[in-house]
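Alginate lyase domain-containing protein, pasting as requested.
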Amino acid sequence: MRRTLVAIALFVLCGYSIRAQVLDMKKEYAATLLPLTKVLLKLQVQERADAHCGAIACQSCNVWHTRAAEAVYPFSVAYKITGEDRYLQAAKNAGAWLIRQQETNGSWKETPEEWTGTTTDQLLMMMMAYELINPHLSASERTTWEASIRQAADYLYQVMKPEFASINYVATTTATLAKAYAFTHNPQHVQKARELAHRTISKMDESGFINGEGGRGIGNKLGVDLGYEMEMSLWGLGLYARLTQDTLVDSYVKRSLKEHLYFIYPDGSLDNSWGIRSNKWTMYGGATSDGCQALFALYAQEDARYATASLRNLQFLRTTILPEGLIGYGPHHYRALGKPPCIYPTFTKAKNLALAYELDKVSKHVATPIPSDATGWMKYFPTLDIVQVRTNNFMATITGYRYKDQAAGARSKYMHRPNGGTQSYLWMKDQGALQVSSVTSYSRPEPMSFPEAPGVECLTPQIFYKDSTGYFTNLYEFDSRLTTRQLGKHLFQVEATGELKNKDWINGTVAYTIRYVFADDYIEKTIKLTYHDAFPVITVREPFVANEGTVFSQLDSSKLSIQTMKQRLYFGITGGEGKLYGGRNAEHFWMPYPAVKAYPVEVEITPPVNGFTKEIKYRIGLGK
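Structure tokens follow.
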């Protein structure tokens, strides 16, 4: 009786009402999994005489990605759901092709790279697929599959550890070797799984965020990336805990997941705007990581909020599926890039959804609000130096995450993430993303994963100047100081202080303070500049997401209107001296990750005639 009453209760969330409903998550997972496997099937080589029979063609890269064979598991689950023989044959072909690509030491290279850490992903998918299609394999096929599984498990046993790989591979291997034990009956495999699991949770900070995705210090990697944690590491640890009944690891994952849940925004987007591997941020997650549904499916039975979060993110993911069925790199994929994406997001998300379909043992859950649904709060993450603010109409993330890749410095792909107290993500009710972050300087550290993008400009709001000595910005300030204060029931203040720096973290000549005030209907920013060694012209840049149909109109030298499909916003200077420019070099404001086009709004500030400080104040708000 009580459950029935809950199911018909009325929640009021985010300024709108939704009737609590029962979420059939298996149905939802299958509704996206099957179209993704269908498009992968179309791209799979079917001719038995072809040496690449079973491989999946990537028309963007013209490479036979060995990781694409992880689709063996989505194909197997699709067969289980539909009973269609074409999916069974696709799974058998994918597995056979993958076995033919195996190195003599049992590993697989992540073609076109030489990296073999992804062997853990490929092996886990092979084993889980084998459990589903084993009855349909011939005796010789079973022998071949089982030999390949044992060989790959032995390789992982020998090489996998934090000294060898980023922490997400270590975390995944805990599940892989725990699963392999059922095939190999080698106690060393499950013992190694436990050792790796406990080493991984030892790298969690006191809030449950895992260090180990960035550059190496003395031996091991440090640095937190929320995307890889939610889409790889945590579900690997959770699955390991379920397979081995390791309650210690399970408790660490549960504690961690409660904090990570805050980073699912109301529209389901996953906020990895600040993470050290945010150079692959796609807003639904990451371009080459698996997805968060597997993680949420593992724990939805214990907390129904995870089912809601899983569905929201899945619904957001669906908006990025392109007409041909592949998943793009973000909301504006074709507008930004003009060409089809790599198949990586499609097969990794299909793998994730297949896992979620199988791991969610309850399937039906009562829709339950997630943290970002509530309004009128501010949360500071002390181990990250990150602040989230949620008002009636806005939600924002402000980042001062202090990780530094000391050894590599500016050469590190992890050190061009947004920082310095910038607002790395801004969401608005009935609009979605209003501002997003990107890398400060685009490069191609992994040429096959990062498309060519000549001349693109950073999408992150920033304060900067350029002169003969270089480019100095708050985005390279990795030692900013953040403070928070609640000014009223619906009024929140965040303040960030630092120095404008170059890519080598060397101070320029100007210090800054950004004071944010978040209200229900506006965001106000006050920027104070302190000129202590030179007096350059400073630019404050605020790029806005340029959705189709959005019209930007500069009204005068201090005000600009933004007319979206649903409402009008304004950007207006309300104090201090500065000249407003809208749309300068707008054609350069796009990024592959996330695939977004933006419209730049800039305020140019000349140095003070008298004294050494200058201040500008402006608002982004609803209305005329």
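Note for the archive: The radius of gyration is 25 Å.
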